[in-house]
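Re: beginner question about structure tokens

> Can someone show what the tokenized structure looks like for a real chain? I only ever see the sequence side.

Sure, here's an example I had lying around. Input first:
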Amino acid sequence: MYNARTIVLNGDYSYLNSVSWQKAIRLLVKGKASVLKYTEISLKTAENVMIKIPA
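And the corresponding structure tokens:
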């Protein structure tokens, strides 16, 4: 399994925290985050959906 951290920035793009890529996906789904850059890695779900991993 892919084991990486995603950087979280605040509104002025300064560093806030780093979270797991799973937490980053949850923040995106909840509408609490947006992606500035993705990694080159994509994961396939059980439903054959490809998910890009935020950087």
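Each token stands for a local structural state, so reading them left to right follows the chain. The mean pLDDT is 90.
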